[in-house]
Amino acid sequence: MSADATASTDASGRAASNHPLAPRSAVTNFLGVGQLALLTLVVVASLRSLPAMAVFGLGSITLYLIPAIFFLVPTALVAAELATGWKGGVYVWVREALGNRWGFTAVWLQWIQNVVWYPTQLSFIAAALAFVFLDPKLSNSGFFTAIVILVLYWGSTLVTLRGGNLFAKLGSWGGILGTLLPAALLVVFGAIWVFGGEKSEVPLEASAVIPPFTGLASIVLIVSNVLAYAGMEVNAVHVNQMKDPGRGYPRSVFLAAILILLVFILPTIAIAVAVPQKELGLTNGIMLAFQEYFGHWGVGEWATAVVSALIAAGALASVVAWIAGPSKGLLAAAETGLLPPALQKRNREGVQTGILVLQGSIVTLLAAIFIVVPDVSAAFVALIDMAAALYLIMYMLMFASAIVLRRTAPDVKRAYRVPAMNLIAGIGFLACLAAFLLAFIPPDGFTAFPAAAYPWIVGAVIVVLGVPPLIFYAARRPGWDRRSDADKARRGTHEEDEGVAPSAASGSVPSPGGDAT
After folding, report:
1. I want to staple 127 with a disulfide (CB 3.0 to 4.6 A). Which of 12, 145, 209, 283 is the partner?
2. How far is CA 157 from CA 265, 312, 319, 352, 402, in A?
3. Dist. CA 265–CA 62, nearest whole Å
4. Are 126 and 283 in contact (CB under 8 A)?
5. For 484, left (φ over 0), alpha (ψ -120 to 50), or beta?
6. Cα dihedral angle (96, 359, 322, 145), rounded to 10 degrees?
7. What is the model's pLDDT at position 148?
8. Alpha helices, DSSP H, located in 141-296
9. What is the 3-state secondary structure (H, E, C) of 453-493?
10. Which residues, at least 6 apart from 350, have a Cβ–Cβ distance to it below 8 Å?
């Protein structure tokens, strides 16, 4: 995700309001079709996943289109209906359809997948920094990568603990300068390379658009493509800011999908034509492409360093801007008594210290993978698969909830309604299920773990990181719920909610903690 990722609704709304493309007054100004499409592009698009697909050359076009059709579009449409019917994001959506237990599980999975995402994004930054200040060979050093992850993550956390939203504002500009500008440069360089008659490292015949099939392992990296599109649901909260959501939002979705595909496909091909496949690393592939282009045209190493610094700054800005966002959504659920008091702690600035410390501890453990697994690219793939599997479970819960709420709460007013909901949500659910199953198959050429052990390792990670919300829910105590009596009376207790039909609550009832997911 590009900030790849996947933050709470209140955080996304705040970041969007700071976004240079957002209207200055969300109350009096309407979002146009093109404006919302550009906002979605900046939120979703990321350069991090491009090298993984560059090894397929023109075949990457097919591998990008498949998840776009079966995941990207259904996610955006379904999330738009849910966002205009129920305020509060995935926690409320799933809670209203399937009950408190699964609503809490959904928001936990949304949070935990972001925790797994941080090391993958920071490892990408580590590779860029190696090209800027040090020896590019360090981009393949697991120890160097782990050190960079820990320093940048904990440094960003300390900044977050001080409160304020300066870095949320910088994050939006960082996303544009660190993602869209390098992507545009790659497209221009790639076009000059190909049309200038330079040798391409991949076949450019039309038949190459269909990737070679040598078994399921050869296309398992499509899982990372599904994760690359994650986050389309974040901007669904802005559908109410459109003058005519029923007509405007679908147009915005399809325009955003086209723009996202262009940002993914064209730079991927630009990387593939210039960098030999045997040299292409998953964390340093983009920098190697710029190095190849600049070196071929006699431009000094300084140019690669400048672009790499730009990419690193943009990626770091996304981490800093969103590091507290997903945890705010979890805090909203925690403060209703779903997590122990230690994880509900805030500091004087109101920042959720308890959850951030837990979050940082998990990131520290995951960073160790880069030391234990000598091949940095292999560790990168493993973390991506872990994050994809966790996030895909959340999406399956979201799609299932949309179908349930159409049946159990048909009278709740929605500014936008998905045509053929069962079909669209069903396609999205099945796409997520297929990608989830593929996450258990090692990618072609993956040698960091034994092939027989790979699915067990992925399964163990899913259980260790995904089961805790069910344990917390079963072990919850009345003393964990620190809300006032008036708040409990107004919004109810979990025990009361479990005693009624999940869809009985009004569609306008906000989640605990307001608009946070």
Report:
1. 283
2. 33, 18, 10, 11, 35
3. 10
4. yes
5. beta
6. -140
7. 87
8. 142-161, 166-175, 181-195, 222-228, 245-274, 285-296
9. CHHHHHHHHHHHHHCHHHHHHHHCCHHHCCCCHHHHHHHCC
10. 163
